[in-house]
User: Fold these one by one.
Assistant:
Number 1:
Amino acid sequence: MTAPRPRVDVVIPCYNEVKVLEQSTLATLALFDQNPQYDWRLVIADNGSTDGTSELARRLAAEHPRVHALVLEVKGRGLALREAWLQSDADIVSYMDVDLSTDLAHLPELIALVAERGCDVAIGSRLARGAKVKRQLKREITSRGYVALIRLTFPRLRITDAQCGFKALSRRAVELVVPRIENRMWFFDTELLILAHQAGLRICELPVRWVEDPDTKVKIVSTAIEDIRGLLRMRFRRPQRRTHAA
């Protein structure tokens, strides 16, 4: 008897992305067709949009059986991911940015790290050896500085990129880690990785091709302040006992 295909939920968190959402959805569905080894579903997680994104998400869900619309009234990228992942019963959950800054061709590779190679958390990295990145110098410096700060506060967490919008989690990782994440915005990714590391879960990195979106919603100064506060909160909290071998 043939084993059932792993069920994979790919979440796209959205806030006022009506201009690019449909094109990105169609490109993702085409990639699903090219990779039938997984049972794919695309979840559009709109969080508080005011530009018609939620209506478009519902229309796309009505037109495409593999698309699901999750519409939240409250803004928060981390909140959207938390809700989508906790509502999912898929074997593997993942997410990527709606602008497809990370080359979509990497998605099956990312999922395979969890489905076939035993990783609990798989993350795209723009700074690992082999990555190919096009972005402004100030953002490159900011990213490298943030990784250095993570290594200073959590030296045993050996990652090269915490905030690339391209991650996948096993069902075990979802159940152990996601309910404990407090942040609802941009620090969500880093908190996820810190908690996964403290739980003894296996974190794997995938070097990616990544091109910066000039219309990005990320604001460097406010995000940096949020990240520093988040790192201090996590650094000085009492860690949970490790429950799995590293």
Number 2:
Amino acid sequence: MSSVAFSRVTNKIVTEKIIYLDPGHGGQDGGTTYYGIMEKEITLSFSFVLKEVLENAGYKVFLIRNGDYDLAGDNSNNRKRDDILKRVDLINNSRCDLYLSIHVNSYPGGKERGAQVFYNKNNEDSERLSKFIQEAIKNEINNTNREALGIKNKYLIDNTKKVGSLIEIGFLSNREECMLLIDKSYQRALSCAILLGIEEYYKVNI
């Protein structure tokens, strides 16, 4: 039976849920790189902050990776493929109530900015979760008008059976936003917005 905890962030009583955080990339796969900063570095540092915020609110949180490595086996001849296969397997075989896969966006020209949440369009709970998170980010961070989007042909989203979202937390290609994404106070503010979205989701999905 789930335990009950008090959310110090939102001043609410919450039922403890298990959340799996998936910091994107790692090891040989650095993701996108701008201004000398690699995506894999931001996804991990942000996930540490998000984990702390969620745990302070009463959630039980696990990380798919907690260092600079991928999840492919030592003898893998296709590390990127085997890494994503392992991530999906870990999420699907966990006891998590939901997962969040953390990534950083990029686009040529450097003008695009703002977090955006993606979900499996065939999973209604994932859609609701993602829309609540996107709305909370819009309201709390106030730097984007983006909407949550249902997508397909992305292996993790297509094959993960759990409720969850893939969150592109901002654009590394935008210099101003890039500097925000490495700032711990901004990471915490964005994490608190994500927490608010999750708790709005659980109001109607207990």
Number 3:
Amino acid sequence: TTTEADPCAGAARCFSAGPFIAEVQQISSSLSGGRHHVLRFHMRFRNVSAQPLILAVTYNSPIAIDNNGNRYGVTPGQAVSGMGVTTGRNADPQFTLAPGESRNAAFQVYRRNSGNPTALSYTFDVSLEQLEILPSRQIRSVRQFSLNFPDLTVSRMQGGAQPAGNLSEAGKKLIGIIRGKKK
């Protein structure tokens, strides 16, 4: 029997979807308005097929679940950058990959009124659609892919905030002293 080579080459944050691979490059975390926790998943997609490939994210599909069971949904108006979106009647074919080509896109999700996050890891799920442009210039969805990235940790917190679960009480006191606040 012949075994097929792993296009992800064993990378932990990589998902092989057949004609393409998707790899989480970085996860950034921030607080919006001091109370909404925002996660941004920066990803690289590579066409591993011999054909051009058009991908778009399925509307409202990006979600994350933290290790505490909290759900993060799509951030209104900012769910994806760098890739088109498909809705029930419309599809944006802007994300085209030639064979072997790589491109980046980012997906943003948030949890309302969450305060300082305590989660240590996240599972990120997103659905992508492979699009085809017909001779009539209509766009149709050919196939849908469900991508799953379990046990991801934040690469970077923006705005100086830190997940509370990552610091011991002594560490929090030390940061307070460094910032000029005595705890």
Number 4:
Amino acid sequence: KRELAAELAGTLAMSAIRNNDRVGLILFTGEVEHYLPPRKTRQHVQRLLRDLLTHEPRSNGTSVSRALEFAGRVTHRPALMFLLSDLHDDSYEAALKSTNQRHDLVVLQAIDPRELALPDVGLALVQDAETGEVLEINTSDPEVRVAYENAAHERQTALREQLRRARVGHLELQTDRPWPNALRTFLALQARRRVA
């Protein structure tokens, strides 16, 4: 997911400077860890990509609210903002709505297919990337896999509804699928909606 986010960020950043737009970067976990103010040079985009690829998170967890609130404080004029995340967080709908009222917020969600369907690999130790909790699960048990898929489906359905209520553009991108055409189509649709 990190590689996908880096590819997406690089593509968006290069597109922005080709349009003579400024581009910045906020890296966050449970807190904002790194901020690169917007600029519009190729060297700036190279630094942005280097920072994105080499940054080592200092903490676990994800706080979309903190990141959006920080972005709102440092961005003084209305802007097009991209939130690239797996969205493993709760209680950030108010921050989405607030940010989207002042700015044009677009969410690009990185999804590992194993988050949607558990592969049958027998007994497995799995670690929650957000909390660090380690569990042993029997992935060979069909009931475990069905329960996992149902929970993943419910979570994604609730997330889509939350983003719809906040009127935020949302694109789901899986790590095992090509994304350039999907992104191009989605961004063209978003641009038409902004003009309308």
